[in-house]
Amino acid sequence: MGFSEETRQRAREVIARYPADRSRSALLPLLHLVQSEEGYVSPAGVEFCADMLGLNKAQVGAVATFYTMYKRRPTGDYLVSVCTNTMCNVLGGQQVYDTLSEHLGVGHDETTADGTITLEHAECLAACDYGPVMTVNYDFFDKVDPDSAVGVVDELRAGGRPMPTRGARLCTLKEMSLQLAGFADPREGAVADGPAGDSTLRGLRLAQQNGITVAGFDPNTPIATKDGGTAPAGSAKSAEAAGVAANKPASDAKPAGDNAGQRERSLKEAEK
Amino acid sequence: MTQPRRETLEKLTPVLTKRWLSPDAWRMDVYEQLDGYAALRKALAVHPDDLIQLVKDSGLRGRGGAGFPTGLKWGFIPQNDGKPHYLVVNADEGEPGTCKDLPLMTHDPHSLVEGVIIASYAIRANRAFIYIRGEAVHAARRLRNAVQEAYAKGYLGRNILGSGFDLDLVVHSGAGAYICGEETALLDSLEGFRGQPRLRPPFPATHGLYASPTVVNNVGTIASVPYIVLGGAAWWKTMGTEKSSGPMIYSLSGRVANPGQYECSMGVTLRELLELAGGMQPGHNLRFWTPGGSSTPLLTADHLDVPLDFEGVAAAGSILGTTATQIFSDQDCPVYATYRWLEFYHHESCGKCTPCREGNYWMVRVYRRILSGQGTHEDLDTLLDTCDNILGRSFCGLGDGATSSVTSSLKFFKQDYLDYIEGRTAPRLSEKSLVGAH
């Protein structure tokens, strides 16, 4: 499929965030961007990224297949990830995953026939103090058990949007991918969603209840200076330009000894 | 639950976590009311070298696991070299058990942004990147919002607060690869490549991002900087131990009554942390634990009084790591726990070097065989032999870390392995998961 002009414009915005001549740095966000339009990284999405960055499709494909979050097949509106790494696993995460898999009739990285849910088992999601955890489009449902997890997916399939325990109200996987490409969440109030959970605040509350603070903090403590302390002005912009010129990227973005652009063109012509 | 004793409570040092109690501290106006951006003003008034010296004097060491002295790292950046310098924040939190950077970025994102500006000024960088784990979507929302607010206030962009210092900051989301927490793999990923580690030397201090001098620091390290600038090095050193100064966020998970984040003076012991956390869950007795994530060798109930600082944990044969203490009880099986971690390392191995890629692949299969009741005594030798070929022979720390739980669990819990092999423990895995194990 052809990508929309809006997506092209967004791609240009993404590229502009990185230094000139270092546009390849925009590849990861661009892959999130194409996923936001198609729900996965399709061959057309790979080609789009390649075109935007002056790379060939093999180079983009090599990157896209390396990272777990880039999906290779169409996904559902909601990606349900159940942590089955050691801690969540022993606390019941494996049963949660097995129950969901049976309930939904899909395995790892598979999507329900109605196109609502893609299920996956995930490695540590960095919320071990709330284990076992599950995320929907990477927003957290804490301390889940098989029943509560089934409740969440049933509500999703019935068109509802259950509120995560922490994090923002749910959006679709495509909408979330756009945020991962570096664009602000446009939903009013979504950034404010998600209070700190009990485990997050446990140590702090204990300190507060018992009047524990760190003594001796004076924000006006002077900083020792070597020479009486005058801050230098001046930017290193010109230095940056000189450095960019002096240092080629780690790779020149082309296979060694290979005129990739020409080959790509010949391939396209051959396909016609 | 029993109330912790006063002397144990006094180990709590709420510094980096303190603003989390203010529900709107992620907003600029609230952050500014809570000392926010005061450190930046103070820092911009002194010479960058004085800030590097201040951080050296504070004894701050990297909070990402390795514990490298931060001021020293900053000092390695060559000055007046005519090259651009970069600051890259490693926010790719993913070490199993570790869960301290996500709450920090979610509830107090400006402290990281302020630390980034000060650190960039110190090392003379005009561009900085926060490489945040892809899955951390809500933390990224808050962080991007904070960056936008900081630009609007003139804390980022051109001529910050009239100092003549310019800085652009980009929040860059990863895409699900644990290996990108390794600093050179992170740099490759940030340059738009597969996240695979680079050969060192040269080190990032001279040839980092875009082959230019680069400092890569963890979230907690950079978020510590504003407090050191405000309170001074001497105050910072009132917390922690002589060689491991300051507060540290300890993340307790597992079979404890109250799992969660406990910011304590560095050098607190697990016995004290357990007291703060209300003890073990009823019916559970401590059996094994990780001091700092799954890449650190397991410790046992014999190590309750080990000071959890860089030196203390090393002396006990493990690593402080990310201070992610995952706590397991007598109802948890160390063989199964290790197997699950190995599945993780096997999945996350980037494939660049043979020992890690092949070693983890085979060890997972040996574990499956043991756990399905078909293991042999030779399997234990095979595991140790494989670890011997991974540790120190892998391209980066991922492979080394993978061996930690294998060798330590075999050291402390060999009987558990033998019980599976000799049929005293019922198989944990079924036949179907055995495909390819022989």
TrEMBL record, chain A:
Compositionally biased region (Low complexity): 232-246
Pfam families documented for this protein: 2Fe-2S_thioredx
Family: Belongs to the complex I 24 kDa subunit family.
Basic and acidic residues composition bias: residue spans: 261-272
Keyword terms: 2Fe-2S, Iron, Iron-sulfur, Metal-binding
Alphabetized GO MF terms: 2 iron, 2 sulfur cluster binding; metal ion binding; NADH dehydrogenase activity
Cross-referenced SUPFAM superfamilies: Thioredoxin-like
Disordered: annotated span: 217-272
Protein species of origin: Micromonospora pattaloongensis
KW Metal-binding (keyword) present: yes
Organism placement in taxonomy: Bacteria, Bacillati, Actinomycetota, Actinomycetes, Micromonosporales
InterPro entries on file: NuoE-like, NuoE_dom, NuoE_N, Thioredoxin-like_sf
Protein name, as recorded: NADH dehydrogenase subunit E
Iron found in the keyword field: yes
Automatic annotation (TrEMBL), chain B:
Reaction(s) catalysed (UniProt annotation): a quinone + NADH + 5 H(+)(in) = a quinol + NAD(+) + 4 H(+)(out)
Names of the cofactor(s): [4Fe-4S] cluster; FMN
PROSITE patterns, per database record: COMPLEX1_51K_1, COMPLEX1_51K_2
Domain NADH-ubiquinone oxidoreductase 51kDa subunit iron-sulphur binding stretches: 335-380
The UniProt record lists the keyword 4Fe-4S: yes
Enzyme class, first EC level, given as a word: translocase
Alphabetized PANTHER family for the sequence: NADH DEHYDROGENASE [UBIQUINONE] FLAVOPROTEIN 1, MITOCHONDRIAL, NADH-UBIQUINONE OXIDOREDUCTASE FLAVOPROTEIN 1 NDUFV1
Family membership: Belongs to the complex I 51 kDa subunit family.
Function: NDH-1 shuttles electrons from NADH, via FMN and iron-sulfur (Fe-S) centers, to quinones in the respiratory chain.
Protein name per the record: NADH-quinone oxidoreductase subunit F
